[in-house]
């Protein structure tokens, strides 16, 4: 019995010992697993930290790249805006140019299928913002020319400051290429400084603008030739006015056969600035024809449109007279002798005390025809003084 108990006890002890060993083994395994798990967790944490550091670095790199891209986009945007503004400015100027000359298409049917109507610019620095633009249209007069002497008196009788504040525009309204080449060559040779500074420009009127008038030159009767010349003169002035309009505050109309009085520019600018109230439409610095008429540039379009409406009816100086009769006289007869009309006309059409420009041309634009026009100087100065003045500026045949 005792032997059985001992055997049972041994079995129990063995079982307990085995179970203890098993438990110890399992605990050791669990401990190893825990250690491995901890190591995995530590490794995972290290991976996360490394990933975080890399992510932060990538974020910083991305931010730098975004900032650089934003800067480049902004710069390109600003450049694009500048270019767009320039394009808009160019388009605006072209549109203004087109609008200014668009009236010709209304009065000349042969121009309606044309694109942009604009004179050929031969010499120009694009000067604008001046106080005065001086327009001088020129054509052939056979073997005679007064243009060089006219330009010499107009330009050399300005002060340097006045020259900077003005632009002289010569418009060659002649289909003769030799004459155009003569004018361009003469101006580039004689007036180099003015050409370089932009104070002297040369434009040429395209012959297609005068399609019907050029055909009219073949008319047999002298009266018809004179009418054709007067009609063309109106259009010459209109084209020159519209071209000069954006270049200066005021526009002075001259011709290619005049001599300017000494200090004419100083006297003219002082007189303009002295007028109060400043509601005039025209100041006349000569009493002969259309010479020496000063306009505000902003008013030129209105004058040009009226001239184009009636260019076939009267010479331009008479058309100018009609404009003021219509503007200032509202009675049925439009009589400028009416007292009210006279007073209104004096306010808006002002006559300077004497002529600042002397007409010297004897050779007419019509070949074999002379004109002996006299102005204030001719009537009030001795013949000897005029000869002295004239000889200092012009000779007989510059292009003979």
Note down, in words, how this protein is organized:
By secondary structure, the protein is an alpha/beta fold. The chain is built from 14 helices and 10 strands. The protein has helices spanning 2-101, 103-107, 147-156, 160-164, 177-190, 192-197, 211-216, 222-244, 264-274, 300-309, 316-328, 339-348, 376-380, 383-391, and strands at 120-123, 130-138, 166-172, 200-204, 248-253, 258-260, 282-284, 293-296, 349-351, 357-359. The strands form 2 sheets. The protein has an 8-stranded mixed beta sheet with strand order 1-4-3-2-5-8-7-9, with helices on both faces. A two-stranded antiparallel sheet has the order 6-10. A hairpin with an 8-residue loop joins strand 7 (282-284) and strand 8. The chain is rod-shaped. The chain starts with a helix and ends in a 9-residue tail after the last helix. 28% of the residues are buried.
Jot down its keywords.
two-stranded antiparallel ribbon; disordered C terminus; 57% helix; alpha/beta; 400 residues; 10 strands; eight-stranded mixed sheet
Any chance you could write out the topology, listing elements then pairs?
Elements: H1 2-101, H2 103-107, E1 120-123, E2 130-138, H3 147-156, H4 160-164, E3 166-172, H5 177-190, H6 192-197, E4 200-204, H7 211-216, H8 222-244, E5 248-253, E6 258-260, H9 264-274, E7 282-284, E8 293-296, H10 300-309, H11 316-328, H12 339-348, E9 349-351, E10 357-359, H13 376-380, H14 383-391
Parallel strand pairs: 2-3, 2-5, 3-4, 7-9
Antiparallel strand pairs: 1-4, 5-8, 6-10, 7-8
Helix pairs in contact: 8-10
């Amino acid at each position: 019995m005792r032997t059985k108990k001992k055997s049972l006890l041994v079995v129990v002890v063995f079982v307990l010992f085995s179970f203890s060993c098993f438990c110890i083994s399992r605990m050791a395994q669990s401990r190893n697993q825990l250690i491995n798990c901890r190591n995995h967790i530590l490794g995972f944490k290290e991976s996360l930290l490394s990933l975080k550091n890399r992510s932060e670095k990538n974020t910083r790199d991305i931010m730098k790249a975004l900032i650089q891209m934003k800067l480049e986009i902004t710069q390109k945007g600003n450049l694009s805006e500048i270019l767009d503004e320039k394009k808009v400015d160019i388009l605006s100027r072209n549109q203004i140019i087109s609008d200014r000359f668009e009236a010709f298409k209304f009065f000349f049917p042969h121009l309606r299928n044309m694109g942009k109507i604009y004179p050929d610019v031969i010499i120009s620095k694009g000067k604008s913002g001046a106080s005065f633009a001086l327009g001088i249209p020129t054509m052939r007069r056979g073997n005679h020319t007064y243009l060089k002497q006219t330009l010499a008196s107009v330009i050399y009788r300005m002060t340097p400051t006045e020259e900077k504040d003005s632009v002289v525009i010569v418009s060659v309204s002649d289909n003769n290429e030799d004459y155009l080449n003569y004018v361009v060559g003469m101006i580039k040779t004689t007036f180099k400084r003015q050409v370089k500074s932009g104070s002297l420009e040369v434009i040429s009127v395209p012959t297609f603008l005068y399609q019907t008038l050029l055909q009219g030159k073949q008319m047999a009767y002298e009266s018809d030739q004179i009418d054709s010349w007067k009609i063309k003169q109106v259009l010459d002035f209109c084209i020159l006015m519209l071209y000069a309009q954006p270049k200066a505050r005021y526009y002075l109309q001259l011709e290619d056969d005049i001599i300017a009085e000494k200090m004419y520019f100083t006297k003219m600018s002082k007189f303009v600035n002295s007028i109060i109230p400043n509601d005039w439409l025209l100041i006349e610095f000569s009493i002969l024809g259309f010479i020496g008429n000063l306009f505000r540039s902003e008013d030129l379009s209105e004058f040009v449109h009226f001239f184009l409406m009636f260019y076939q009816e009267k010479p331009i100086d008479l058309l100018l007279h009609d404009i003021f009769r219509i503007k200032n006289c509202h009675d049925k007869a439009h009589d400028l002798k009416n007292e009210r009309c006279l007073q209104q006309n004096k306010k808006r059409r002002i006559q300077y005390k004497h002529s600042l420009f002397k007409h010297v041309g004897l050779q007419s634009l019509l070949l074999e025809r002379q004109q002996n026009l006299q102005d204030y100087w001719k009537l009030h100065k001795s013949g000897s003084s005029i000869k002295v003045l004239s000889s200092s500026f012009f000779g007989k045949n510059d292009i003979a």
